[in-house]
Structure formats: C-alpha cells, structure tokens
Amino acid sequence: MGVSVLSGKRILLGVTGGVAAYKAAVLARLLIRLGAQLTVVMTASAQRFVTPASFQALTGNRVHVDMWDERIADGMGHIELSRVSDFILVAPATTDFIARLAQGRADDLLAALCVARACPLWIAPAMNRQMWLHPATVRNVETITADGVRLLGPDAGVQACGEVGFGRMLEPEHIVAALEALLLPGGASPESSSSSEGLGYRLAGLDVLITAGPTFEPIDTVRGLTNRSSGKMGYAIAAAAQTAGARVTLVSGPTALSTPAGVTRLDVTTACEMFDAVMARAGAADVFIGVAAVADYRVAKVAAHKLKKTGVPPVLELVENPDILATVAALPDAPFCVGFAAETEDLHANAQAKRRRKQVPLLAANLAQEAFGRDDNALTLFDDAGEHVIARASKPAVARALLAHVAHLIGR
Ligand code: PMT
Predict the structure, then answer these.
(1) Distances in Å between the alpha carbon of 282 and those of 93, 133, 218, 253, 318?
(2) How far apart are alpha carbons 126 and 160 in whole angstroms?
(3) 38 vs 55: CA distance, rounded Å
(4) How many domains does the chain contain in total?
C-alpha cells in the first residue's frame, strides 16, 4: 500500500453534537493510521455524545473545547489553531452548526475557528432527513457552499431515528476516500467548486443527447409496466443545456411536459425504442446524459389483445432490456457519459458501484423518494476526483449546477 496523501497533513477535526459523533472517533483513528496529525475541537453538545478523553487517547493531543482556554498562546486560540492546520474537517456537522456557519457566527471555539480560518473547510453533515430537507437548511447549505465550504455527503439510508432518507453522515472510510480525492493533484478544491459557478454559454457548439422520463413496457394492448418518472429532471437539463449554447436532442419516454424551446425531441415508448433512438445519435454526440428511468425488464410475449380475466392470475415472463448508458459508454468513440442513479438507500455505496459497473466518468445520484415527480431535487455527483453535493433546489437550478460541473470536467 502506498503512502496516503493524508500523511503529514495537519487536520483540525471539529466534532459537533450529533449521534454520529461516535463515528468521529473511528474517523480520527483512520486518519491517524494514515499519518495525519490531528487536533480535535469539540462543541459543548458534542461532549454529551463522546468525551474529550476518547479523542485525547486516540490522537495523543489535548482536545480543545473552550474559547477562553488560558493555555493557548496570547488567548488567540480562535485564530492560532486554524492557522497551523492544512484544512478543517467538521464531522459530524449538525443542522445547528451549518446554520451558525451560514450566519458567520463565532459563538464557540469551533465556529470562531471556522470564521477565522485561512484554510479550506470541509464538512460532513449529519442530521435527520426532515432537518436536511427543511427550507432553512437548504438555504444555509446553499449559502455555505457559495462561501466555499465543501460538503462531504450526507449519505442516504436508515437513520438513528429509524427514518429512511438523506442526512446520514458518510461512513468514516468514505470521508477518508473523499479527502484523499480532494487532496490529490487536480482534485477539486472547495474554492473551485464548479456547482456554484455560473453555467453561462459554456456548452456552446456541443451536441448533447439526453434521455428523460419513464419507459412503458406493454403487457397487452392497454396495460404496461412503467414508473413514476415525470421527465422534469431530464427536461430541465435539456433546457439548461440549450440555454448554455448546446444543440440538444431529447429522447423522451411518455411525459406530460412540453418541449423546451430550441430542443429537438424524439418520443419513444419502450426501452428498446429508446435504445434504438439513442444508438442512432450517440456517435454524433459530445455529451450523453441518461436521466430516463428505463425499465430493466420487458414482457417477453406482449398479448395482441386485451387480456381477459380468467380467474387464474396470469404469469408474466420478463426479459432483460439492453442497458443504454453502458452501451453508449462502451462505444469506441464514446461521448462524455453522465449516468443517473435513483437509490432508495445507501446512496453512496450503491451509486459508486453503479458508476464502476456502467463505466461512466460522472454519475449523479439522487434519492428516489425525494426525486421522482418533484419540482426540486438534490444530487450527489461521483467522479474521479471524489464526490460533490448539489444542494436541494429547483430542478432547473440543479440542472444548471450539474451542467456547470460537466463543463468543468470536459474542460469548458
Ligand atoms: O423524471 P423525474 O420525475 O424528474 O425524476 C427524475 C429521476 C428520479 C427519474 C432522475 O433524477 C433519475 O434518477 N434517473 C435515473 C433513474 C433510474 O432508473 O436509475 P437506475 O439506477 O435504474 O439507472 C442507472 C442509469 O442507467 C440511469 O442513467 C439510466 O438512465 C440508465 N439505464 C438504466 C437501465 C437501462 N436499461 N438503460 C439505461 O441506460
């Protein structure tokens, strides 16, 4: 195993008061094993979940908990501790801490250090899913992202409270992997976060091919298998790409939406039709974005008439549909491919596995129950540099942030 980029890094690890605080101890141990030098700062509420003694034992360094600690030189602890750090990592970062960051408050040692810092600040949010979705949190996340703070996660899955959704802190090993990706040469720095940059006319002259909406796999002449995709996300991306100067072709499953101005739309019904429409155009595309919720299976024998109720439930034999995204990505002269992943849990692990399986440079993951049919969305982007969060916002705003990231990756 080679030497980690974290070796020798001076990290100020901030711990705030959430259930996930116990995982910060595991994180501290992983970072130390990789050769990082850790100084831990805990908020008052973090100490209700774990004691400073745990971190002191793990790091071998005194843990800082007090703004008014007389042992810190000149009483300037709020400046001094951040000046000697390569970066600040706050894990877990609670709803309240994010709110305080957004307001630029300096009402305890950790908050003061973040405001007084001259180094990058990366945070791993951890909170209940409703708190993560609360409009105030959405606003605060947008504010701190625009201020240059980088978010690692959160992940989706079963939470400490038993609810399922976004808000769970990334597992410590995933935080370490994200830090390593950020610290690699060429890794995205928080200040250059492309999701907060404007999209402008950065796709000028490019051919962008997009799939959107659901597919419909007939069972007989009137029934079929489909899903709840409305097409809103894919259509928003098509509109944003067109506004950014691209020639856009939208291959759409059945939706109730009107075609965005200036976009060429091809209507299809089944996954096989979508496959044919995409493959006929993929060779000419510079960028392919698979937003459609494509049925993985179709009915083997579609009945030529409406099936009658016989008293014996019919058995449907299904066969696998072709994987459009994976096929485009495997073309010898493939366009830059962006996949989507709609997950119901373990977003982080499932999305990364999907990116590997489909061999795409960029995968945008969203939580199915908080994306299908809604007017807003939140995405976690996975690429070679790690992960990037696009905070919850309207689908048009999310679409622009996604395309700004694509533009950044393709050197626009
Ligand atoms: O349409 P909305 O209501 O606005 O909702 C948006 C959305 C939730 C549908 C969208 O954001 C989204 O997540 N789309 C992908 C949904 C999905 O079905 O993901 P998947 O994990 O099954 O597929 C992974 C990727 O492979 C996707 O890019 C998909 O388009 C592609 N795929 C899947 C199967 C297949 N046979 N061919 C494919 O190309």
Answers:
(1) 42, 37, 26, 17, 27
(2) 10
(3) 9
(4) 2
Is residue 215 a contact partner of residue 253, using CB atoms and an 8 Å limit?
yes
Is residue 357 within 6 Å of ligand 1 at its C-beta?
no
CA distance 35 to 32: 5
Kindly report the pTM of this predicted structure: 0.73
CB-side neighbour CA atoms (13 Å) of 167: 23
Cα(167)–Cα(164) distance, rounded to whole angstroms? 9
Domain of 352, in residue numbers: 207-301+313-409
For the stretch 305-332, pLDDT in tens is 999 999 999 999 999 999 999 999 999 9
- How many residues in total does the chain contain? 412
| 57 and 161 part of one domain | yes
CATH of the domain at 47: 3.40.50.1950
Pocket test for ligand 1, best of 340, 346, 360, 395 (most atoms within 8 A of CB): 340
Nearest residue by C-alpha to atom 13 in ligand 1? 342
CA angle (391 as vertex; 386, 393 as ends), nearest 5: 145
Q: Which two tokens stand for residue 361?
A: 């440079």
pLDDT in tens, 27-77: 999 999 999 999 999 999 999 999 999 999 999 999 999 888 776 666 666
